[in-house]
Each structure stands twice: as C-alpha cells, then as structure tokens.
Amino acid sequence: MALDKAPLSVLFVGGTGTISASSVRLAVDSGMTVYVLNRGNNAKSRSLPASVKFLTGDITERSSVDNAIEGLFFDAVVNFLTFNAAGAQLAVETFRGRTKHYVHISTASLYGKPVLQVPIVESTPIHNRFVAYSRAKIAAEEVLWNEYRSSEFPMTIVRPSHTYDDANPPLPGDWTIFDRIERGAEIVVHGDGTSLWTLTHADDFAQGLVGLLGNPRAVGEAFHITGDDVYTWDQIYTIVGEAVGVEPKLVHVPSELFLVGAPDWFWSELLMGDLGHSAIFDNTKIHRFVPGFRPTLTFHRAAHRMQAWRLEHPDLTGPNDEVNAVLDRMAKGYAASRAAFAALAPKGT
Fold first, then answer.
1. Which pTM does this prediction carry?
2. Residue 289: pLDDT above 60?
3. 288 CB-near residues (< 8 Å, 6+ apart)
4. Rg from Cα positions in the chain
5. Cα first-last separation, the chain
6. 231 with 278: CB under 8 angstroms?
7. Where are the alpha helices (DSSP H) in the chain?
C-alpha cells in the first residue's frame, strides 16, 4: 500500500512582489503548504491565496527571523530579498539546518555585457562593471557557492531576467511611458532601438521556479529562467503604443548619455550595463530539470492586459513627475544634439 506523502512545505522570503507573488500562487495551486515571510506590510501588496501562512520578520535581522520561524522546518526556502554578500551569509546562518533546499533569487544582469556569444547559457562569464546592483548579486552568489563547496549547504541559484506582471510594466519609466505615449510626448529609447531583449511574464517564470522546489538534483546548480519572447526595444515601445491606441514618437539617445544627463536615475546604470545590449537566453537547462516549463504569455498579449490593469487602477498607474523630468531632459538633449550635428553639415546639403 502506498504511503501518503505530506505536501511540500515552502517558505517564500518576500512573496508579494512582481516575481514572487506569481510563484506563491502557483505553489499553492500545486498543493504545497506555503509560508510567506516579510515585514508584514501586505495590505498594499498583490493578492495571495487565503491558505498562505504569513510570518512577520525582517530578513536582515537574524533574531527577527528566528522568532518568526521558531519550531518550523521547510522542505524549501526561496529568498527574493537578499541583495549582497552580507545578506547571503546571514541567510546561510539563519536557514542552515532549517531547510533541505535553499533557493537564492539572483539576476541575469550579472552576465557580462556585451555578450560575446549568444545565446547566453549558465556558464557565460559573470561580471558587470557598470551596474552596482549586479556586482552585489555576484558577491552574494560567491558566498553561496563557497558555502556549498565547503559545507554542502543545499543551495540553488536562480537568475531571472527582465520579469514583469500585469501591474508592473517592463519599461524604463514604468507607467509613465504609457502616459507619455497616450499624450503624444516623445519616448526616449536607448541606443538605436534595435538591440534584442528578452521579456518574461512572472506567471511563466513561476513555472520554472516552482518546478525546481524540493528537487535534490537542483542542489548545487544555477539556472536562468526566462521566456523565449524576444523583441527589439523599438518593437517593445511600439507594442505598448498598440495597446494604448497611439503610435509612439520614438527618439534615440546613445545609452552612455543617460549616465551623463541622468546620473542619479535608477535606470541609467542599467541602460548602460544591461538593457543597452542584446540578451537572448538558452533555457535548455531549466527545461531539462523542469520538463513542464512552457512559457505561454507573449508581450503582445501582456501589453493589452497591462493597459486594462492601468485603466482599472488609475490611482496606482499615474505618471511620475521625476521620471517625466528625466525623459523630457533627455529628449531635449536629443533635439539639441541633432541641431548641433545639422549645423556641422556642409552647406547646401
């Protein structure tokens, strides 16, 4: 007679963000017992199933987490909220002996750019001298690899690329871009708009992540989990325009000039050291470990879902004045440089 097996117990650290909420929902749908640990500010977050067990704790404070998970053991822990080496070391100390499978959510932005060979595979060289966030994630990974090699800490590394959901568009400027397209303002595109970029809906990412949980073969491995939905940036903005119903007015600015004109803007480093380069991924490895991984959402469809969500939630999707100021400044710089080059042209041409 077959023995009944208890459902997998999984702790998500974070659990209410763009990437994590979809994973929590799928884990519940898959029959897992799901816990979510965060600082408790869940009222304004994405909705989660009623069966989720919420724990209150701050992952940056060991005693806070110890109190929250006292007496609990998890088949898997998924940490979305650790961003540097110190945080990774603290997570190891916190969860050692409390889980059989620790999954660290890293980032695909740590693959060196420009990529010298495509598609990107998990063994593609890792470095990023432009983006501080990516360098911090590299340092976090190094801590985990060392712990795995020295003490067999049961870790897996997952590297999402540009992942979005209906409530968080994958655009430098977020909902401000929708507003600018709608009112006919210029849309500033980095580079010449032809670099290729991979977009992944969070629901598709969740298939790969949840499929790895509790799999002992995944321990000591790294995976990127992305869709196969690849577009140029001109196409991405044009698709958003189609969803809004207005053709976007695109102007192109060299990526390095964002660091000149907007050095304090969150996206400027990323445009220079990540988004400004083509990124196409080979997902053979995640398919091999999770045979059911089948991304289904294209950005063409998702853009219309985002526009519908925007119209349903006007209080959450309005334009950002600071972002508008940055984009207006960059558009003004584009016009000035175009005029300057025109003045250099031979007379009569």
1. 0.94
2. yes
3. none
4. 22
5. 88
6. no
7. 20-29, 62-68, 85-95, 132-151, 175-183, 202-212, 233-244, 256-261, 266-270, 284-289, 299-312, 321-344
